[in-house]
Predict the structure.
Amino acid sequence: MDNKLKILVVGSGGREHCLAWKIAQSPLVDKIYCAPGNGGTSLVAENIDIEASDVDSLLEFALKERIGLTVVGPEAPLVLGIVDKFNSKGLKVFGPDKELALLEGSKIFSKKIMEKFRIPTAAFEIFDDCRAAYEYVKSASMPIVIKADGLAAGKGVIIAASVDEAKQAIDLIMVKKKFGASGDRVIIEECLEGEEASMLVITDGKNILPLASSQDHKRVLDGDCGPNTGGMGAYSPAPIVNDIVYKRTIDKVFKPLIAGLNNEGRPYRGVLYAGLMIKDDEPLVLEFNVRFGDPETQAVLPKLNSDLAEVMLAVSEGRLQTTELDWDSRTCLCVVLASGGYPGSYDKGKEIKGLSAVKVLEDIYVFHAGTKQKTKNTNPDKEFITNGGRVLGVVSLAKSIKEAQNKVYSAVEIIHFENMHYRKDIGDKALITRDSD
Ligand code: AMP
Ligand code: GLY
């Protein structure tokens, strides 16, 4: 076919390896670049040495290479306005513009939109003055949640069990400026109970294509203990998102938001991620993200049979006509292998062993995050070393959660790098509650 597309994937995590891997399956696609990419993306794309937040250099590259579609992984370039800049030069990008990227970039913007379109979420107050915030928590019921307004690398949310803890959180964010200007304002909100899950939709501003539900595991240790991480594993679908919850999320969250924004003449284009707290089949929105989740993507995209590149192109052109995506009905489960010390400090450069043995296993995929090639070469038996906190995502597709768990953990046994650690209980929550098999 003529006019095949060149695609640029922006980012360097497991999510971006998975996106590039899925996009590479499309007959519409000729070549994929990844900026800056990782060891894994070098297997399906050409890595380009440009950082994800260097929007001007990305633009220069995309113009020079005549990129047909740019797919943005992380939130930072979206908040910096990569979509507006690329569009102004006639380049297509999958993602929301700078203003709507604030749905993730500013928790206050996001809450105000939720309030406006009556989207179910925790009750909240906004403060730009720490004394007023201290005063408020004195008479508030505990626990309570304190959130920095702006981006804080996933660390700007503190759940305070007492008035003292709440004051310390306000102090850390607003006075000590732990997250810089992101803490100029805070949200103080009601602490919700329930089980968390992620629901994502792809939209061109009018039409909505829901993705399979998923569940992340943010804490570093088994049993949801220890500090928060970027995500230690995920599975899809999430049994907590039953048919009722799924329908309520579409009807009460996504439809009013997407239609409301479109009616105001600011259509949201791209993928929209709702982090939900679910109790008694009622979903409440904890946060919106304006991008795919990591590691949720690694547990969702292997289930997708449809052509992702085609869907993304349609979104970027505002002509999403497909009404349904085609899904593999099996369960997909991803376990993240991390460097010793993560989410604290860790060493890099550890040799990764066992990847070629795992590659031949049926229905097992390995997505790289913090890896790089040991030596730059074109040898198909590339060797990799660790280069980040989250190193690999090992993924399996199977008929049940139990089977997916067994397959992933057998594959994990084959992989090794010094001081590797991972959670041994990814999938247990789904098993306890409602695995139907
Ligand atoms: P956020 O970045 O707003 O999603 O917050 C990060 C994490 O903090 C969430 O995944 C929840 O585990 C927790 N969290 C945020 N808001 C609340 C809330 N209102 N009630 C309980 N937990 C929350
Ligand atoms: N896994 C959580 C996120 O991508 O925000």
Summary: Residues 194 and 298 are 24 Å apart (CA to CA). The longest strand covers residues 270-279.
